[in-house]
Design a protein that fits this description.
alpha/beta; TIM Barrel; 8-stranded parallel barrel; 17 helices; globular
């Protein structure tokens, strides 16, 4: 574990702000929230990372992270999306950010596309529905490699393409907000896979030999378990669900270059890869970048009907990836939880979830011999949380969006993560010594009926999810 990488991440649209400043072009998310997205009150609030970069850097210093995963706003560099003369102010911002990270011995992990497609490409071409955007994306990526590649050793092409396709062009709850046919969703996914592969080959051929960097694509997933562990049908349905979400993108890229058989047999409209395309796509990742968090979960009440139970067991899904995709090197590229918008710095729920998730990662490494080489806590600071707008918070640092200075105030989770990084894992002893004593003989113990139902289920989950930490004395 001596070389294990500890990091934190953000998405450009979520934290940068300044959506019309210094020549930046509009993105599909700018248009979406200002014209159609009614839930986004004070959509211009943001945490203003574009103008308050020094405060972000101070927050990173406080944590002591090994790397910072951030995305480039495509339309901040090229307002129309088409590569021409870059917007100088935007270029200066990203150069300053990268140089400042390296000065602090923090590796930049740079995502080329975290959902904020330049609006012009949506209006002119139909966005990711159109194959023409693949070449335009590759041109943009080429510029980034030429400009930043001498200082960037980790690249991410696309962040969670499942959500781009499904929610952007299916449910319509993400930009561009299209509620299309399911065939459109899979057509968009097809183009995203081909766009990733083209950029990967471009980098490998023209830049990697002398820049020596690595590249992947962040794939997100839920994890589910069968209602009945001995029921073959329930197990098959769980496998089917994993194939539909994670396998949709992972099997072409990390597997044999083609879609899962279940998808191909069920959907006659599913686009097909030619044999040449399969060979071109497979293996186009230097590591498995994995996202696991609230964005990747389906509503729990829909799962039991399908013979499945929602699970937060990160260790189990890492084992699934190991078995399905031949023991890849894995970067946990996005992981964390959320709190309600009214919670300020005392985010105890987020701490509990962080401890649970990181414990599962450490168990996977130690007991299952899974090659996880880094962990990204999500996210560095509070920002715009997509369809939830500002109604939830996911940052390690609290930001008062209504304040002028927008200070980055460390939450309890930031203090806890800082300690984990310092100790390279969980610190060996708790700061509070254990208390060993007994209550008096006439002390009364009780519980109300309404609490009982919740508590039993809660602790059953704890026993199941923390099998190497918690033990039930009297089962």
């Amino acid at each position: 574990m001596s070389k294990f990488l500890w990091g934190v991440g953000t998405g450009s649209f979520q934290v940068e702000g300044s959506w019309r400043k210094d020549g930046k072009g509009s993105s599909i998310w700018d248009h979406f929230i200002h014209s159609e997205f009614r839930a986004a009150n004070s959509t211009d609030a943001s945490s203003d990372s574009y103008t308050l970069l020094d405060k972000d850097l101070s927050a990173l210093d406080f944590l002591g992270v090994t790397f910072y995963q951030f995305s480039i706003s495509w339309s901040r560099l090229f307002p129309t999306g088409v590569v021409a003369a870059p917007n100088e102010k935007g270029l200066q911002y990203y150069n300053t950010l990268i140089d400042s990270l390296l000065y602090r011995n923090i590796d930049p992990v740079v995502t080329l596309y975290h959902w904020d497609l330049p609006l012009m490409l949506q209006e002119k071409y139909g966005g990711w529905k159109n194959e023409s955007v693949i070449d335009i994306f590759n041109d943009y990526a080429t510029f980034c490699f030429q400009t930043f590649g001498d200082r960037v050793k980790y690249w991410i092409t696309i962040h969670n393409p499942y959500l781009v396709a499904w929610h952007g062009y299916g449910t319509g709850i993400h930009a561009p907000g299209e509620k299309g046919k399911i065939a459109t969703v899979y057509s968009v996914g097809h183009n995203l896979i081909k766009a990733h592969a083209k950029v990967w080959h471009n980098y490998k051929t023209h830049f990697q030999p002398y820049q020596k960097g690595m590249m992947s694509i962040v794939l997100g997933s839920h994890w589910i378990e069968p209602n009945k562990s001995e029921d073959a049908l329930d197990i098959a349905k769980c496998q089917e669900s994993m194939d539909r979400v994670l396998g949709w993108f992972a099997k072409p890229i990390h597997g044999d270059g083609d879609y899962p058989e279940e998808l191909k047999s069920e959907f006659s409209f599913l686009p097909r890869f030619t044999e040449n395309e399969k060979n071109y796509i497979k293996g186009t990742a230097d590591f498995f970048a994995f996202s696991f968090g609230p964005n990747n979960f389906k509503p729990p009440n829909t799962l039991p009907k399908m013979g499945q139970n929602l699970s937060l067991n990160l260790r189990e899904v890492l084992n699934w990836i190991k078995l399905e995709y031949n023991s890849p090197r894995i970067l946990i590229a996005e992981n964390g939880w959320f709190t309600d918008s009214h919670v300020k710095t005392d985010d105890t729920t987020a701490i509990y979830m962080m401890k649970n998730f990181i414990n599962k990662v450490l168990q996977a490494i130690k007991y299952d011999k899974i090659d996880v080489f880094g962990y990204t806590a999500w996210s560095l600071l509070d920002g715009f949380e997509w369809q939830h707008a500002y109604n939830i918070r996911r940052g390690l640092f609290y930001v008062d969006f209504k304040s002028e200075k927008k200070e980055r105030i460390p939450k309890s989770s930031a203090l806890h993560y800082k300690q984990i990084i310092q100790e390279n894992g969980f610190f060996p002893r708790e700061s509070t010594p254990s208390l060993q004593a007994q209550f008096s003989c006439d002390f009364s113990w009780g519980i109300t009926e309404s609490v009982l139902k919740v508590s039993v289920k809660y602790w059953e989950n704890c026993w199941r999810q923390n099998d190497q930490q918690l033990y039930c004395v009297n089962k």
